[in-house]
Design a protein that fits this description.
By secondary structure, this protein is mostly helical. The chain has one domain: Membrane associated eicosanoid/glutathione metabolism-like domain (Four Helix Bundle (Hemerythrin (Met), subunit A), Up-down Bundle). Helix content is 80%, strand content 0%. The longest helix has 29 residues, at 48-76. The radius of gyration is 17 Å and the shape is elongated.
Length: 130
Amino acid sequence: MTTELTVLAWGCVLALVHVFAAVIAKTMQYGSKWNMGSRDEALPPPNPLVGRLARAQANFFETFPVMIGAVLIVHAAGLANGWTGWGAILWLGARVAYLPIYALGIPGLRSLVFLVGVLGIALVLSPALT
């Protein structure tokens, strides 16, 4: 299996980490009765950590499909190379770092790490655009 596809597999694991981190924090705030219920009731505003984890999760799921597409394009077209592999690794490393940085509320560093992830996607996609 190529580096890029391996990174996608780990990206799926990271997606689950995002989902569980957000729901665990939300359950800690609203309780297990809320978690196991229909979740129809209005809730008080989320505490800062719950809000940050929800936004980090949303951000991940906005960019993950782009990474999936980039990897599948270069893989299907036989364009994977050393740069696409490093781009995939760069993307994954940035996305792993992004979650705790966002959870801790470090805005400037969070934006920088996001851009590193975008650079990783660009490296993966670049052979398909030339």
